[in-house]
Structure formats: structure tokens, C-alpha cells
């Protein structure tokens, strides 16, 4: 046996350690296998026939393509094989899954026609049924099918044309709004009028005559057009409200965009900014009113700052229930928190200046105003969907361009839900905000619950933030004295 043979046993100290540190046999097998499978690079350089071809894709990418081809007909979530032919046959023969909520719109109505059943009832019985309906509902019933029209006759249409049924006629015509893109429903007249400024309607101040159609009752004070007072000298006519909601429901040619109603203006020392947003088929409005205020105002000065001398309504935006509750008291309380500059005359003024010099500080008369627990929370009107937030902020006074002066200003923000805009009577939110009969019995806390109009509006308008304030009732005692009460003034 030669000396290089692995079976040779050597003696001595070095041979003992060489045998002890020798790798295991399994490792030797792995090394031999790796060396056998490793290509000989020198031999490859000598002969080009033994070089393997390079793969067209990387191994990982080739594995991904192979996996996609094998699982292209499998559901990604369930892992089941999808047979497109079986799916098409199931839809055509068996119909859609009845548990699918979206499949209800495509189900075929296999019920028998109801005209024979309607015709089996006598006209006297249908006339008795119509006694429980208003004139508008009677016309809607007769307008549904020819069988009902023949049973009811022309009596519902004749009754709808009477002057005393003008509101019911307007409610019925509101359901036909989609058929008249070039017209606008006039509620004082109860008929459609042709739009004279189609696509060019612009909201103007209250003292500007801006008719959108030719109406014979345009200047009839006995039948005024429905409107909502935004601020002093600014109103939102229901016609513009109609145009915005029609464009949202039916298309741009039916009206205008809500952004076209946004305005900025100044009047009587107040600056106002309105903005609108459509949420789930309802128009939301935000009005921000700002006015500079001096500290330590007397009660008479506070009234002159808050109320208009023309109609004794607030300069800022309010609903029809602003006299009931604590809204005006909250505004007066916020004005009382404006910090007053301290006196600098006499010994007391010298003492203050000496303390400021000793501590190395300068007295800032425009310190931040902190509100109390009464005027800090937001207020919600319990009788209509309106929310108010009263704040005192430091605002730059740009009346004098030569000086950069910051002054305290009272900021009153109002959020309102104006409703779906179908009609002044059918839209319960619009009727509640204006204090009309259609909004009687409206409970905002029961309808909205924990959902706030301000949070819904500000979440959609990303450029503004809403301070986290709790919402409490504007009228916690529930007293409804209106103008007869003197607490509001």
C-alpha cells in the first residue's frame, strides 16, 4: 500500500492529530460530489462544445412564470380551479346568486301582470282609496298605469290645477324634474319655466335682481320665492339649490357645480366665506364669519358688534331658531375673554415695566385668548341640522398697509345640512332650518346621533382642520320663546 493511500496508518504524534482532525466521511462525500459536479473551466476554455447554454430568464423569474401558468385558472383567495365555461352556463341557466346584494337589480320579475287585478276593482272603490291621498298623490297614482287612469278618470288632474292645490302640484312636478333639463321648476307658480341663463347662473347679493327665468310672480310679495338667509344682505335662493342638486343627480347640463356657489365678501366690518359640499345626496354648507373686536366691551358695544340695526339679526349666519338658547350668550361670553392691555401709567405701570425688565421679557398685549367651559364647546341646534363654533383668534389687520398689526377677532363658524333639494316642503332639512311647517318636530340629535355635520364637512375638505370640541345642545332647557324672550338680546 503506497504512502498516499487513504488506508495507510502512520505512527507518531503528528499522525495522531492528523487522524483526529480528519473531516467526517459524510463531508468527504459532499466534497467529492461538489467537485464532480463543478464544471472544469480550463476544459471549457479549450472546447466550446461542453459549455452549457445560458437560460433565457433568471431562475427565480422562470419559477414565477411557471407558477403563474399553473395557477392562472385558480381563485386567488379560495385556491379553487375556475372553469369559465361553467361560470357562464351558471349565469345563463341558473341565474345570479340571490344572496348577492348587487344581483337584485338584475333579477327577472316573473310575477304576473297586475293590470287584471287592478281592473277587477270597481271605480267607486278606487275613488274611496283616493280619499286618503292628497291631490299630488292621487295624480301620481293615476299617472302610474293606463288601467288606473281609466279607473280614476280626469278628476285628479282637474283638482291638481286648482289654486289651493299649488303646493301639491309643485310636489308632483318635482318628481318629473329629470324630463326637463332646460327648464326649472317654479314653486310659487307650480310650473316649469325656461331657463334664461342656462349654464351661466351666478349667485348674487340679495339687493341685486337676478332672475333665472321669466315668472309672472317675480315681484309678487304675497307669493315670495323660497330662500334662506345666509348672512346680512346675502341669501341662498332655492333655485340655485335646485341647480346644484339637479347637476349632482342627473348630470352637468341640468345645473351648476356646488363650487360655483362659494363666495367671499365683506360688509359692516365683518368678513364672510361660504363653501358647499355634497355628501350622500345632501348639500352641506359652511359659513365662516370674522370681525375684529376690542377688549372690555360694554353690553351695548357688544350688541352693536353682533346685531344689525336693520332687522336686529346677527351679522353672522344663523338658523331660524337662534333666539332660543345660548347662542348669543356664548358669543358675548367669548368677547369677554379677549385680554385687555394693562395700565402703564403711575406707580403700577412702573412696577410692571420694572418686573418685565428684571425678568427679560416684553409684555405682549395680543396674548392668546383662552375660552371657558361655557363658550368653548360647539353648539348644535336641537330643532334643525345646524352646528356653531365660536372662537377668538389673532388675525392680521390689513386695513393699514404700513403696519403689521395683529388683533383679536371673533370667529363664528356655522355648518348646516340643507337636505336633498327636492322641494321646500319635501326636503325636511331645508324646512327645519327656515322654521317652516314642513320642519316641525325635527330632532337633530335623534336624526344625526353621534354624527356631526362639521366632522363630515371637514373630513371632505382637506385644507381645513376642525378643533376637537365636544358638541352640546344650543337650547339645553328647551325653551321656545322666540322674539318674545329677551335673553337673546
From TrEMBL:
Region (Disordered): 26-53
Highest rank taxon of the organism: Eukaryota
UniProt protein name: F-box domain protein
Biased composition (Polar residues): 35-49
Amino acid at each position: 500500500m503506497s504512502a498516499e493511500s487513504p488506508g495507510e496508518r502512520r505512527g507518531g504524534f503528528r499522525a495522531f492529530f492528523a487522524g483526529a482532525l480528519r473531516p467526517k466521511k459524510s463531508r468527504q462525500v459532499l466534497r467529492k460530489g461538489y467537485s464532480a459536479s463543478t464544471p472544469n473551466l480550463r476544459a471549457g476554455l479549450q472546447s466550446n462544445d461542453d459549455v452549457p447554454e445560458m437560460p433565457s430568464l433568471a431562475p427565480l423569474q422562470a419559477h414565477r412564470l411557471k407558477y403563474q401558468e399553473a395557477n392562472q385558472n385558480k381563485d386567488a383567495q379560495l385556491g379553487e380551479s375556475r372553469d369559465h365555461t361553467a361560470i357562464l352556463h351558471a349565469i345563463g341557466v341558473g341565474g345570479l346568486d340571490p344572496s348577492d346584494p348587487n344581483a337584485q337589480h338584475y333579477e327577472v320579475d316573473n310575477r304576473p301582470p297586475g293590470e287584471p287585478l287592478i281592473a277587477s276593482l270597481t271605480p267607486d272603490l278606487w275613488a274611496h282609496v283616493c280619499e286618503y291621498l292628497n291631490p299630488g298623490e292621487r295624480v301620481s297614482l293615476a299617472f302610474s298605469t293606463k288601467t288606473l287612469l281609466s279607473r280614476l278618470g280626469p278628476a285628479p288632474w282637474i283638482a291638481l290645477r286648482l289654486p289651493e292645490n299649488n303646493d301639491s302640484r309643485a310636489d308632483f312636478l318635482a318628481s318629473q324634474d329629470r324630463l326637463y333639463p332646460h327648464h326649472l321648476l317654479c314653486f310659487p307658480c307650480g310650473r316649469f319655466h325656461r331657463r334664461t341663463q342656462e349654464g351661466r347662473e351666478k349667485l348674487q347679493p340679495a339687493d341685486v335682481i337676478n332672475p333665472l327665468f321669466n315668472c309672472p310672480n317675480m315681484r309678487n310679495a304675497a307669493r315670495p320665492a323660497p330662500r334662506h338667509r345666509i348672512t346680512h344682505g346675502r341669501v341662498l335662493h332655492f333655485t340655485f339649490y335646485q341647480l346644484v342638486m339637479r347637476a349632482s343627480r342627473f348630470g352637468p347640463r341640468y345645473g351648476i357645480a356646488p363650487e360655483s356657489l362659494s363666495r367671499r365678501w365683506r360688509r359692516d366690518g365683518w368678513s364672510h366665506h361660504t363653501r358647499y359640499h355634497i355628501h350622500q345626496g345632501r348639500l352641506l354648507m359652511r359659513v365662516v364669519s370674522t370681525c375684529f373686536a376690542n377688549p372690555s366691551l360694554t353690553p351695548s358695544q357688544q350688541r352693536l358688534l353682533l346685531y344689525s340695526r336693520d332687522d336686529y339679526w346677527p351679522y353672522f349666519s344663523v338658523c331660524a331658531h337662534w333666539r332660543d338658547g345660548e347662542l348669543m350668550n356664548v358669543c358675548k361670553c367669548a368677547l369677554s375673554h379677549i385680554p385687555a392691555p394693562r395700565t402703564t401709567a403711575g406707580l403700577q405701570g412702573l412696577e410692571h415695566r420694572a418686573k418685565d425688565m428684571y425678568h427679560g421679557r416684553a409684555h405682549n398685549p395680543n396674548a392668546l385668548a383662552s375660552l371657558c367651559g361655557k363658550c368653548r364647546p360647539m353648539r348644535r341646534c336641537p330643532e334643525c341640522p345646524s352646528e356653531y363654533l365660536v372662537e377668538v383668534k389673532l388675525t392680521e389687520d390689513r386695513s393699514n398697509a404700513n403696519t403689521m398689526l395683529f388683533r383679536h377677532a371673533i370667529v363664528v363658524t356655522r355648518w348646516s345640512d340643507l337636505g336633498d333639494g327636492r322641494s321646500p316642503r319635501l326636503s325636511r332639512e331645508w324646512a327645519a332650518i327656515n322654521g317652516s311647517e314642513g320642519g316641525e318636530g325635527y330632532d337633530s340629535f335623534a336624526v344625526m346621533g353621534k354624527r356631526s355635520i362639521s366632522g363630515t364637512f371637514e373630513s371632505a375638505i382637506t385644507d381645513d382642520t376642525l378643533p376637537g370640541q365636544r358638541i352640546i345642545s344650543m337650547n339645553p332647557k328647551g325653551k321656545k320663546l322666540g322674539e318674545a324672550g329677551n335673553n337673546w338680546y
